[in-house]
Amino acid sequence: MNFYSYEYLVSNQDTRQLIKIIVIVVLVIAVSAFFFMYLKNRFEIKYKDLGIIFATALLLVLAMQYNDYSNLLNSQKQTGQITQTVKQTAKELKIKPSQVAVNSTNQTDGLIVDTPKGFFRIDFSSDGTSFVLEKIELHDPKIKIIRG
Fold first, then answer.
1. Rounded distance, CA 142 to CA 119, Å?
2. Which residues cross the membrane (predicted)?
């Protein structure tokens, strides 16, 4: 069972976003360069064709980026909720948030928390603003803590 540390939850683990931004910048530079070369040499159609190809690729990447951006906003909202839950749990147990690990990156009912004081299950209220912390015992736990 994978548990995620507080540092992992706080740090932004989405390096794909950086790669996509780099790809977009490279495509914008390429489209601009081919457009400039086409304007400079109007009789060479290859620059126009290459510019159209790269512009189409740029539009495709931008469309995918918009979809991923909306998913990223939703993910950040959920990550913010789970980090607040970890902070509140640590405060309740009188330990540091860095000593708490959870088994999900989303705020779900039945969340399991690993602390130096043992394992706890978190049951959220129907509106998700409060929770009940219940000590549990795991039989034969095979835990892997993923750190940020």
1. 13
2. 18-38, 50-67
